[in-house]
Description:
21% strand
Amino acid sequence: MHINAALQAVYLENIGECVIFQWIEKIRELLQEQLFAKDQVEENEEVVEDLSVKLDSVSVDTDELPEIIHGEIITDRRSVFQGHVARVFSTRQVKQVLDKLYEEKTIEKATHNIYAYRILKEDTKSFIHDSEDDGETQAGARVMHLLEILNVQNVLVVVTRWYGGTHLGPDRFRHINNSARQVLDKAGFIPVPGQQQIKKKK
């Protein structure tokens, strides 16, 4: 109806003249306006979606510091490893936990503080995740892989290593992995085999 009215207006303005070319120009003009409006709507929708994601991230943040659980100490040739774990629901809480750990000077000055986290976004069923090697190449990725194969979520794991002066070779990765697994188990984050099936039967 909008196009018909516009073409009728062109005709009335040019009564007695050939208006075919004016109609073509008017139609082209109207189509360009519609395309521009569509692009604006899509752009606005993207902005709203992006903003909603950010607001959703903010909504799960809290000023309360998550509880940090510390694992057992593993020692090998004077190198010392210790895992730490906390339940987190946002990257803000990840930073809170890391900042709290680094307040302990012995942890802050450790040779490496390796960490990985996996946070489930309930709305999209996707994960926010990241890892840090802190100078121990591929160590963060290995801890992340552990979180994935254990299928744990909303968890930050930090493994602190104090170097003892003797190179451990591949053994260092075994100790990092064991430190992470041990503290996850201590905190109760590792699902017990068969637990889900028992809950379903109930």
